[in-house]
Amino acid sequence: MRFGFDIDDTLINLREHAFHIYNRKLNQTIDLNEFHKLNTLEIHTLYGLSDIEGKEMWNDSLEEIYFTDCAIFSGALDFLKELEQQGHEIFYITARNKAYCRKTKEWMIKQGFPVKDGNFYCGMKDHEKINIIQKLSLDYYFDDKPEVLNTLTDESVSCFVKDQSYNRAMNLPRLVDWSEYHEKLKAKGLK
Ligand SMILES: [Mg+2]
Question: Candidates 3.30.70.20, 3.40.50.1000, 3.40.50.300, 3.40.50.1820; correct CATH number of 2-10+72-187?
Answer without folding.
Answer: 3.40.50.1000
